[in-house]
Amino acid sequence: MRVVAAMSGGVDSAVAAARMLDAGHEVVGVHLALSRSAATLRESARGCCTIEDAGDARRVADRLGIPFYVWDLADRFQRDVVDDFVAEYAAGRTPNPCLRCNEKIKFSALLDKALALGFDAVATGHYAQIVDGPDGRQLHRAVDAAKDQSYVLGVLTPDQLDRAFFPLGDTTKPRVREEAAERGFFIAKKPDSYDICFIPDGDTRGWLTDRLGEQPGDILDADGQVVGHHHGAYGFTIGQRKGLGLERSSMDGQARYVTAIDRAANTVTIGPADLLGVDEIRGIRALWCGPAPSGPIAVGAQVRAHGEEIPATAHVEGDEIVVRLGRTIRGVAPGQSVVLYDGTRVVGSATIAEAGRARHTTGA
Fold it and tell me: Mind listing the pLDDT tens digit for each residue in 347-358?
């Protein structure tokens, strides 16, 4: 099989490419140039897609003896990931750029180009497993729970899963680093990069302010009283506690969290932790790994990339997925994704449109 190995310059994608070669595939290494002005050197452990990373990927490909190319997808990345990220925050939602990158870049733009050039599949260094099932290939959690990335891959369609390989899903990260060292890869100890790759200093609010400008507004308490002011509602997310810009004394010394963001009114509402609790999630843009269920199904629901899986039931209601959680959880923000599991298998996903207390006491 002719396979494009996406090589970021990190240890995971290097070992993934090597394993595909060991399995007998015809492998070509491809580094994605995603920045319009890639830095010469990595600024921090958060950054990626630097010229240094491209060089690291090339040296690994040379050691493996495979062809290597750099594909420029910077404009596509800017439009589908960066611009989308800004637009979502501007609308008062909390996006997941890593999930969007997997959906739009690595398993849409990259795979489409690979297929157009005559390749059969794409392999990446993601920590997840693909298992052949009676209804086709299924996406499962990785063996290494701490590194599992099935959540950010939950947006993949069945057709994309049919053309994907995740060679590291059955291995722990420490073992991957050991294997890299055994293979003589000089990047065996290279630090991992962290979200968000295009904000290497980690200052999301400052980065957004540079692009959206200051938009002063009021911070309200749960009764609608003004208790402070902000420079842009886009700089807040549901469940946020730090960086509210309030004097503790003005809130009687009690912790307060962001409980609501109203972009139309340009207000941010804060309140005590108990106002954050939700047990019902309504999701849009649903994707099912198989036929949509005809009635309520028992699932595990995960709402953050490294969040806890919560027992739940899910059912289709019109164009939405309604997920009823088995217990109340906090900090669920519109714009995030809810990914549904049956054991280790991903069965569906949706973008969170609304979260709150259950509207009904019967049904699903």
Answer: 999 999 999 887
Nearest to 18 by CA among 70, 71, 57: 57
Render pLDDT for 226-251 as a digit per residue (tens, 0 to 9): 999 999 999 999 999 988 877 654 56
Is 44 labeled as ligand-binding? no
pLDDT in tens, 29-76: 999 988 876 554 444 444 456 788 899 999 999 999 999 999 999 999
Could you count the other beta carbons within 10 Å of the beta carbon of residue 228? 17
Of the candidates 48, 49, 197, 289, the residue annotated as catalytic is 197
Q: Which of 48, 49, 98, 101 is catalytic?
A: 101
pTM: predicted TM-score of the whole model, two decimal places: 0.89
Roughly how many angstroms between the first and final C-alpha of the chain, as a whole number?
45
- Which domains can be identified in the chain, with CATH numbers? 2-182 (3.40.50.620), 215-274 (2.30.30.280), 277-356 (2.40.30.10)
Q: Is 10 annotated as a binding residue?
A: yes
Q: And the tokens for 142?
A: 């990785």
Q: Token pair of 288, please?
A: 């099912």
193 is in an annotated binding site: no
- Rounded to whole angstroms, the Cα distance separating 89 from 95 reads 7
* C-alpha–C-alpha distance, residues 1 and 113, integer Å: 16
Establish whether 49 is a catalytic residue. Answer: no
Tell me the C-alpha distance between 137 and 131, whole Å: 6
Task: Report how far residue 53's alpha carbon sits from residue 293's, in angstroms, rounded to the nearest whole number.
Answer: 43
| Omega of the bond leading into 329 within 30 degrees of 0 (cis) | no
Q: Which residues, listed in sequence order, are joined to residue 342 by a DSSP beta bridge?
A: 345
101 flagged as catalytic: yes
